[in-house]
Amino acid sequence: MFFTRKKTTIPTPAEALPGRDSAIPTAERHYVSGRPLKGPYPEGAKVATFGLGCFWGAERAFWQLPGVHVTAVGYAAGHTPNPTYEEVCSGMTGHNEVVRVVYDPAEISYERLLKAFFESHDPTQGMRQGNDVGTQYRSGIYVEDEEQRRAAEAARTAYHARLQEKGYPAVTTEIREAGPFYYAEDYHQQYLAKNPGGYCGLGGTGVSCPVGVVEA
């Protein structure tokens, strides 16, 4: 996760790296649960996608939640098809490092996932999280439908108000329609389960997010 001269401006499609037609290889199963990363998933399962800094620590924040079926890390919200980690870190793909969360809405609400998202990082830092600087570390919620969009926007508004009370600057979390999700390389999947002492650059604000307290 340590790179220098990180770009903090998202490239245009014309500037972005060309990428490739084929998906890069990744793991078949979740290192912790043994469940298949790409499915099949249980009937009724839903998908949520979040970017909140280095995806090693971000993924761990979600796989530990009851009701989460499986998680995977990857790249989203950029221009380059099937990018590699090195390409994303160059700042020339436009992608964010994200966590894809497959969950059972009967066991955990989307609002509860939003609460975990906001409380696991500082969403006021723009193109960075702590010492990790670059477009791939921006705060982002990538929604599957209008229901998720409304919930995400309401949570962002509520948390912004709470953070303002504590003296924080404006929340910079982007909320966008979920586009293509590209699975990251095998060694990134569940990295902190494979390397318990590995790097985790995430740090929350310590301010409680006022959503997801009561399950749907």
TrEMBL record:
InterPro entries: Met_Sox_Rdtase_MsrA_dom, Met_Sox_Rdtase_MsrA_sf, MsrA_MetSO_reductase. The active site is at residue 54. Pfam families: PMSR (PF01625). It catalyses: [thioredoxin]-disulfide + L-methionine + H2O = L-methionine (S)-S-oxide + [thioredoxin]-dithiol; L-methionyl-[protein] + [thioredoxin]-disulfide + H2O = L-methionyl-(S)-S-oxide-[protein] + [thioredoxin]-dithiol. Residues 48-200 form the Peptide methionine sulphoxide reductase MsrA domain. Gene3D superfamilies: Peptide methionine sulphoxide reductase MsrA (3.30.1060.10). Its EC number is 1.8.4.11. GO terms for molecular function: peptide-methionine (S)-S-oxide reductase activity. Keywords: Oxidoreductase. One of its GO terms (biological process) is cellular response to oxidative stress. GO terms for cellular component: cytoplasm. Belongs to the MsrA Met sulfoxide reductase family. NCBIfam families: msrA. PANTHER family: MITOCHONDRIAL PEPTIDE METHIONINE SULFOXIDE REDUCTASE (PTHR42799:SF2). Has an important function as a repair enzyme for proteins that have been inactivated by oxidation. Catalyzes the reversible oxidation-reduction of methionine sulfoxide in proteins to methionine. This is Peptide methionine sulfoxide reductase MsrA.
